[in-house]
Fold these 4 entries.
Entry 1:
Amino acid sequence: MQKQKVKKTMSVLLALAMTASLAACGKSGAENDESIENIMTEAGERDTVIVRIGRQTSSNPKLPEGDTYEDNAYIRMVEKELNITIEDAFEANAGDDYNRQVSLALSASSLPDIMQVATKDELTELYENGLIADLTDVYERYASDYVKSVYDSFGGRALNDVAYDGKIMAIPATKPDGGPSMCWIRSDWVEELGLTVDLDGDHCLTLDEVEKLAEAFIEANPENAEKVIGMGFSSGLTDSNSDTAFSINAIAYSVGAYPRLWYKDESGTLVYGSTTEEMKETLAIVKRWYEEGLIDQQLGTRTYEDGIALLAGGQCGIVFGSWHIPDWMLNNVYALNENAVFEPYAVTDSEGKVNCTHAKATGEYIVVNAEFEHPEIAVQILNLFYDEIGNSPELLERYPEVGEYLNIGVDGTARPFNIEVKASTYMEDIYKELSAALSGSGTREGISSAEERASYDAIMAYMDGSGDITGWCKLHSRYKGGGLLYSLTENNRYHWITPVYPETTSTMNTNWANLLKLEEESFLKIVTGSADLDEGFEAFVSDWNKQGGETILKEIMEQMREE
């Protein structure tokens, strides 16, 4: 029964996919760029170089028995290909523990040859103290054509973020645009109740349509749960990431509000999105939903974990979140109910557009000690992991244990660099290749990413009944979520906003935590009725300005003038 249902769902999805172009993404220079071969030849001709790195670790790296951080498949491949020996100058779990080690290295002016730093503030400090190498020339000479194309896909936003006085001072991780906070709906409930959703098949809904569906789910209670809520939210309500799960961001964006973000309004004035009239309009909508019982009446105390439990228990059939929440959240629903099926939709504004914000193009940064004699090694490692592994089948043939690492999900901390370097349109590109392979118009080998070839395998195993929850997750995230991102792009449904991502200002250092607490508490009081909408929002904006918000705006504007 389940297998038949899955097949039916898949046939519908594939039919939809055929309406889009399934042309494969352009391949890497690993197949066509002779610079890679030349670089490897040059590395092989030099004397063995010892490279001391700052190593991020994980409490559960999933390394096979016998492998360690200093001796594993990734390290062995790098050492053989680049004629180097990697030693860990320090090891610490990713996050606060690692950041403390970086701070100690900074204070002592004793840096490893290569290390990772978490913030732009740290990068700026390293540059201003002359502690890190200028990578401009080695990037231009050694970075593969494919790697350069990945950074170029951000329209200058990625490399500009690591540029000081026109010099490239770090290798940045990239953050592809995550797209909107999608409205994930229990489509098996829709089918069971005979409801009509998305008549034109564009996978876009208005707020009114979402509201009516929530009402229908509450009235029908498809799984006879003790208490059904219409839509799942957490007490945090808003987030600076557009696609954060359990937030009201999708509602806010649909009315032109961009909470917790700095951006220029139509007049060119820098604003903080949580203090705008559009944000007040958003709170008015959510407040009405709360009053009408479409939102959990225990909203004020709900955590992420509570929201997941409501979904898994059949008490909620609508939740907002990123394209990848099936991998780590909706999977909890399937674990308890193998008949559960979700479908993602985008929420439009009054003009039929999907408002979305560009993510900060970069994340963490790889820096090289100014005294290290071989800064090119950092770029060569970059080529290996973010070009050749994904784009050169020959490399995985030479190092099958690396391929096995990808299959078993060895943590990224096992690599010398615990970062991701992906094009801004990564998911749209993967979707094209994956959908082509699934529909038969392409092949598994046409999927350029080794990671996503594993996704294809998992989906196919799930479809023929031999797979597990992984296939269900990948079908929903990579295929359905990725397909929606692709459709929005291809059909020109996006209205993009590019926020300002400032460095931490002096007032942010002292006041930001309190300002966020003020925002969260004020919004929650307004929605749950503890504060009047008009008076409560006016008081929030006034207090926000008085408690440092106005000063921070001025500090950010000063940063922008200096740039």
Entry 2:
Amino acid sequence: MKIKNKYSHRLQLASRRNTVLISRLVIILLSLILINSWLFKYIMESENHYYSWITSFYWTISNMSTLGLGDITFESDLGRFFNIVASLSGLVYIFVLFPYTFVKLFQSTERIHRDLRDTISDHIILAHFDHISSSLIKKLKQYRIAYVLVVPELKQASELMDMGFNVVSSEMDDQETFEKVNINKSLGVVLTGNHFSNTSITYAVRQKSNIIPIVSTADSESASEVLYLAGASNVIRPGEMLGRLLARRITAGNALAHNIGEFGQLKIAEATVKGTPLVNKTLSSSKLRELSGVSVVGIWEKGSFSTVNANTIISERSVLVLAGSQDQIDQYNEIFCIYNISVGEVIIIGGGVVGKTLGKTLEEKEISYKIIEKNPDKAISDKYLVGDASDKEFLISSGIMTSPAVAITTEDDNVNIFLTTLIRNLRPDIQIISRSNLDRAVEHLYYAGCDFVISLSSMGANSIFNLLKKGNILMIAEGVDIFKVDSPKKLIGKTIMSSTVREKTGCSIVAITSGDEIKINPEPTSVIEKGKSIVLIGNAEAETKFFNQFSD
């Protein structure tokens, strides 16, 4: 993968800061010398003394450096006053500006933690800095979970410290490092580097502790097996996960609801609706709850998750977020699922891990597809078309004009944005889904014309977070949080309808629990009782609003 991304860019910016500081110091010095030299020459000429520019520089530098030799003096009060000002400007530069600049240059290095054992606990230890770990840090901060990022290189550690990260400069496979970061009081270790370094660090951690959770990424099944043998608690393969997730978003084929998470008997599922009787109906007129028992707790539309009400209109591009038991989800599929609605083959652009997994998933769903791949070495079957997808004529010849959907899976966000623009211009009606590697590219891809975008870094971070979650958090999905709280005092005795939780926060109550018992999709008239817990779903903003509004 080409890694010329925001993180390397931000590191470059941090590095350039030092150059900028030094440059400013030099510019200030040169400016003072030029201004003082000119004033010296001007005042001396007013006193009928004429000196060369070389002499002017000589006088200025000797006075600013406080080494004034007294061989050239002024006769007027104005001249003597200027002599004082020039000397003071030199003193300020030498004793104020110069030290301040160098303090700024080296203070980040001095601030870098070498040892945190006495200051941190219940934290996550991250051994690499990349797209996924950066997104994970944002998620940890959101839920006020402490973390420490271990970086071996002092320069990079300094730059990351300047960017606001909590950093320890050390080697992650060094046993002393584990003492420094208080590993025995941590919640777990996260490894997002290559599978070679991940394996080495896993062994090092296991020499220290057999119980500390270790979550690692891998790029193949064989690498996963080795990491499990080394002692990893969980191994995720982000590329394959992303391929399967993109496949769920494609509206060709059937409209089955796919489970994305669960809490006991409560299932959370997503369902596309194109080709179903639900299109252009309001939630009320669809009678979804009456017919299947499921609750629609939100809708994905153009990359935005929003809560719903009775008057919410379901469009053909909507992706419903459903909550219910498995029987209720099955009932939904039985009533609303439409099979074999696609005409033409789905086009996948990019034959890497994501594209291959996407194609395999579509094949399992009995959806026809083609993969466009620029590198002939990756064309491993007759499903592949070798060529450049950015070539308009080649794209047309590949069948884009009759395809129901296209999935863009290249590793370059700029390429994905270009292809989205090109395809949207060719086919205003086609469904376009795309991966992004950086979170910041998501907005650009939607603006270019994507119907749905999934960030690899965000998805990977969510997956890791779910494996290390604690407290009330049940599940983090793409843009959706599911959490459980004890019934807040402000809500006890109220019905779900009268609580106005959805109206005030955007969260939906999807279950009420008491011990091992769980009531899924409680009626609006259900009373929130003391001693019971409620399960809610919403995006991160909605969750924050809930705790701000109803926390005890």
Entry 3:
Amino acid sequence: MALTKAHNRMIANASANIRDFGAVGNGSTDDSAAFNSAISNLAAQGGGTLFIPIGDYNLNNVATPMSSHITIEGEGYGSLLRNFIGGFYNFVSNITWRNFRIIGYRYVWSNADNLLFENISFENYDPTAPASGSSRFCQIVNTSRVRITNCYIKNCQYGLFAGDAFTGSTVRVNKNIIVEGCTIENTEAYSYPAGLNIADGTEVILKDNVIRNIAASVGTQGYGIYQGDNTVFSCDRMNITGNLIQDCQYGIKIHAASDLVISDNNIENTLVSSFDAISNFGDLDPVTGSVPENVTISGNTVRGDISWRGWFKNVTITGNAVRNAGRGINTYTSNSGQFLEYLTIDGNTITNSDETGIQLQDTTYATISNNTIINFNLNNNASQFQQAGITAYTSTNNIYVYDNIMTNQLATGLGKFGVFFHSVGTKGTARKIAYDNIATNVNLTSSAMTTPVAGTWENAEKIYFSAPSAGGTMGTVCVDEGTFGTLSGITGSGSISTPTLTVSGASDMSIGDYIMVTGAGTHRIQNISGTTITLWTNLTATVSGVIVQYKAPTFKTFGAITA
């Protein structure tokens, strides 16, 4: 059968042209038999390339086969496979789709390997009446080495769904996934839509994509990028970087992912009242049963909150530009006993928050440093902890706040305090330290307490009383640093001119605490490893089994108020 059109790429591949199998390409003639015959012919030869010249090929909603080592290649947008409903493709490998347009439904790849989708334009053929199971450009189950690059995907529930929605799985089975340079938009006809839904995967890269107009038809569960659920799915080694996410109900939402990087994304106009631009659910990893760990959120520009819940360890939020948020950067959990542990919030700029700029709840071992917070409490919230640039609220312990700048630049700025420390802690004494912060047009430090009774305090820190009275004072100032609390029965041993102290127990101590070692001076804790404590300064004498106790701070009132 003679070729209807010569083409250099086709000749180089020495494979097949769909027109050689009887395809007409006029948009109305049923070309499904020609397509299926061409794929079967290539499969019988062990694979090859099916060339789709410019034309409108109606596949008439007929299920289409796919075999290993098959490339389908067109001439760009003008090469159209219409009503290409796809199907379930099992145990295939080395599949390439390149340079053509699809008006279709759903493609599920199971137990597959080495899939490439490049320069594909996909549009759901009936976005107003999605069938059971929903439309999606690509779904992968137990599949490795998948790359989707420079594709345009429109009007489906998911651009990519990685996971088994049919049976579920508690094993990460999808590996080496790259989605890069794609545009994914418009999912209004569906419940729980997402531009990219990576439920299950390891070694995942989502890079330089544009995702917009993702909104559920019912409710508010529409996501730009969504990961996992709380029962069967999780990810690890996942990198979400350089994406533009616009006009979605949520930006990026995570369930459980370890070794996660979210960097250099631009998220605009999240559409729900929670303002979540980057957020998570704070679930245990259903695969390992452990707390997810090692998360970096850096260099993102967002309109809305960066909100991270408990049940995570080792989270770094750095160098982000956050604006027009509810609470700019915040941590919390709704479940008793859950803590976010080891948190760093550094070098972020937070502008125009409805409430506080940075708020911590249910967090232990956190460092808040080098952040600039401009214009906060724009909603004029009456609660003190929402009137501050930085708030350590309930169930927060071992919190270090330093070198931050908090300012109100608006004439109507309603923020009142730089740093607010609530007195409640759940892991022993609530230790909170603030120093070297700068506040303009607001008071530097506030507390609901009339007199500090907990925490670690630095010299010159001020507490402005929440309810000063006539004849009283405005506040109190620390004139001698120290740590409140009691160490019961703790002894220590160490050598003169060394910074190492071995103690009988260190469970009630924290880095940054001030302690007195009987006969060997007052010191500050630099590091704790088991029962070995490293001090900032050397012991002044050799001691053995001496009493170790906290060194309490000293406060003095200031600002007498006329009676």
Entry 4:
Amino acid sequence: MNKQLFIKPLFGIFLIWLFLTAINFNKAFHADDTFHLIAAQHISKHPLQPMSGLIRWENENPEPFYKANQPSLFFYLIAGVAALFGFNEIPLHLFLSVFSFFSLFIFYKIARLYGSPMPLLLTALFGFTPAFVVNQNVMTDVPVVCFLLAAFYQLLLAEKTKKKKHYLLAMLFLTMGVFTKYIFLPVIFAVGIIFLVKRQFKNLFYLLIPFGFLVLWSLWNYWEYGGVHLLGRSARPFYGRPELFWAFVTGLGSISAFGVLVFNKFTGYKLNKRFVYLTSAVSLLLVVAFYFLSNQYDDQIRWFLEGLFFVNGLFILWYVLKIGFNKKLNKNFFSFLHTDDGAIFLFIAAISLFLILFAPFMATRHILTVVPFILLLVSKTFVFSKKIILNFTLVGSFILSLLLGISDWKHAEFFKKSAAEIREGVPDYRTIWTTGIGGWYWYALKNGMKTYYLDSSDLKEGDILVLPKGVSQYRISSSLEVTLLAKLWQKTGPFSFFSGNHFLGLYHNNFGIPPWTLSRNSTDTIYVLGYLGKRVGH
């Protein structure tokens, strides 16, 4: 009987997953995909030296992988898939979609075990979160979410069944997680606090599993390059933390349509059809107005949206804190930590504080790690909302995710097509030099372009220099005499109007750079220059 009842939810989960996969399965490699792919290529050749490969990324000269913030498990997984199917978009995106499916499936199981009144609706809100839709890239973030949810689910089962296997499985997922991204370190700490608060002292020994593997990893690091990767992580100076807090709150607000449901709770569940019709009409009018005004008022539109996102994010965080420190519901904070709500609250706090205090930058993919836990914590209030408000929130989140997903797909494709077009239009005997990072760099190298270095590249008269404005980031010698041969830019339209690619906000938001905006201006321009020789006097 229970299995029969589960058929419909499973079908719903499958449809959500199908939507995520359909948008992204043939998406061009994008943003940090290139770093991960190059790291995986290195591992394919040198499996025992994962951190020693060189890449030109944040600085002018190539640096070893251990200068980056990320451990290597995900690189090994990519290398394994590529060994079978090559470094191609479709098989690698389908591989990542496996993590997407299990993220949705496990989240649904958690919601049921947690006692959420509408687990499938909650799963849909999670699945249609814009950050979850857009970040189906060859990056770590979706696997991280999957490991986080799997670990939490096993901890819930362990608490309810007291079976050793669930504790061991939780530690397995925590270990896999920490070797994918160090954001799991505060999560492990949070689990330790839960064990201490509940006086489950024997359970603390389970934490020796992830910490033991971290020690082995550190010893491996020392053997490989004479340092410890965990201790060598770069981070923004402390004075930059307020700015990062702003980016965190803004990022959360930009991807959390369910803020409407939280606001509905604040109003005493008074939102009704009138609110839906009015909000829909105002939103549509603003979108139309911004469409025609965007060429002249891009900055004003961007600041308007950033303010709106910040208010929404701040409201959500306020409500999360209200649940944690509500004296009417909780006798004291320690009694609260004994509950499932308390465990979820600790996960939210641990991940959020780690991002704000230690992350080198903020991005929606980072914030995505706390979204499922926030959804769970506030979900018990959703049942009191009118059906029309629930549908409005779900549909709004779906539409926003769809538009941002299509826009991001088009932007990634622009770099792929442009690299191929430039190579095709230049005779083979002429060398093409380029700068840049992200997806552009991958396809530039794939099409035979050479990396330009300020001090060492020896250009010959007649060579071609290609500069993508948005992702170039490296200096060009002032002694170069060049002429403009061509200029390529991404054509804009209705499906690129909702854009997370202006300043790559979806992948690196900051004060004044919201995760997404509304703009008809091109997201990037690629300049094709002909080299004429050195300037006179140089």
